[in-house]
Amino acid sequence: MTDQTGAGPGPDRTGPVDLAFAPHLTEIDPAVLVRLRASLAERATGEGVLDVAYRIVDSPVGPLLIAATNRGLVRVAYEREGHDLILQQLSDRLSPRVLEAPGRLASAARQIEEYFAGRRRRFDVPLDLSLSAGFRRTVLQHLGEIPFGVTESYTEVARAVGNPKAVRAVGTACATNPLPVLVPCHRVLRSDGSLGGYIGGLEAKSLLLQLEAAAA
């Protein structure tokens, strides 16, 4: 049957479509699809899944759990915080791939040992601050600028980060610091010179301050 112009099948044609005029309907080799899917899956795994490596290091303030992503050291935790709890939190917040991998953290472990031995005043390892955000991260960035052996008050820190009234928020940022020792929240005291709080306990804070005073 032809249409009224005699040009062949009309709109109701059911015959095969000439693929020369519809290249997008050309069938793709199944083997090519398999390779494409495998490539995309590999890329997603490499780019979308973050590994968290950790190890335990001994120190004068007790065992410290240190953990790092591919961006840098992300967590330092005192034993009193509960290392198993910290590992679960890292899994929940960062990645389910939390692996014990001492080799990846050799440099950080060595520098922590040198610090407690009085041979190091600054840490030279990349830090990943992804566990802090907003004002808390701003405070942590300032804490890294407080020199070895020097202390500031919570009020002075609040003023330094541009929010003089946020003294209590500064205290909260210090109390939730995910990288104690390396990000030295122990160098922040109350205005009257008393210790205030500390994530590792006041005994640990006092020991760190004494260590730095002696080394300085």
Automatic annotation (TrEMBL):
<dbReference type="Pfam" id="PF02870">
    <property type="entry name" value="Methyltransf_1N"/>
</dbReference>
<dbReference type="InterPro" id="IPR001497">
    <property type="entry name" value="MethylDNA_cys_MeTrfase_AS"/>
</dbReference>
<comment type="similarity">
    <text>Belongs to the MGMT family.</text>
</comment>
<dbReference type="InterPro" id="IPR036388">
    <property type="entry name" value="WH-like_DNA-bd_sf"/>
</dbReference>
<protein>
    <recommendedName>
        <fullName>Methylated-DNA--protein-cysteine methyltransferase</fullName>
        <ecNumber>2.1.1.63</ecNumber>
    </recommendedName>
</protein>
<dbReference type="InterPro" id="IPR023546">
    <property type="entry name" value="MGMT"/>
</dbReference>
<dbReference type="InterPro" id="IPR036217">
    <property type="entry name" value="MethylDNA_cys_MeTrfase_DNAb"/>
</dbReference>
<keyword id="KW-0963">Cytoplasm</keyword>
<dbReference type="InterPro" id="IPR036631">
    <property type="entry name" value="MGMT_N_sf"/>
</dbReference>
<feature type="active site" description="Nucleophile; methyl group acceptor">
    <location>
        <position position="185"/>
    </location>
</feature>
<keyword id="KW-0489">Methyltransferase</keyword>
<dbReference type="InterPro" id="IPR008332">
    <property type="entry name" value="MethylG_MeTrfase_N"/>
</dbReference>
<dbReference type="Pfam" id="PF01035">
    <property type="entry name" value="DNA_binding_1"/>
</dbReference>
<comment type="function">
    <text>Involved in the cellular defense against the biological effects of O6-methylguanine (O6-MeG) and O4-methylthymine (O4-MeT) in DNA. Repairs the methylated nucleobase in DNA by stoichiometrically transferring the methyl group to a cysteine residue in the enzyme. This is a suicide reaction: the enzyme is irreversibly inactivated.</text>
</comment>
<feature type="domain" description="Methylguanine DNA methyltransferase ribonuclease-like">
    <location>
        <begin position="53"/>
        <end position="129"/>
    </location>
</feature>
<keyword id="KW-0234">DNA repair</keyword>
<dbReference type="InterPro" id="IPR014048">
    <property type="entry name" value="MethylDNA_cys_MeTrfase_DNA-bd"/>
</dbReference>
<feature type="domain" description="Methylated-DNA-[protein]-cysteine S-methyltransferase DNA binding">
    <location>
        <begin position="135"/>
        <end position="213"/>
    </location>
</feature>
<keyword id="KW-0227">DNA damage</keyword>
<keyword id="KW-0808">Transferase</keyword>
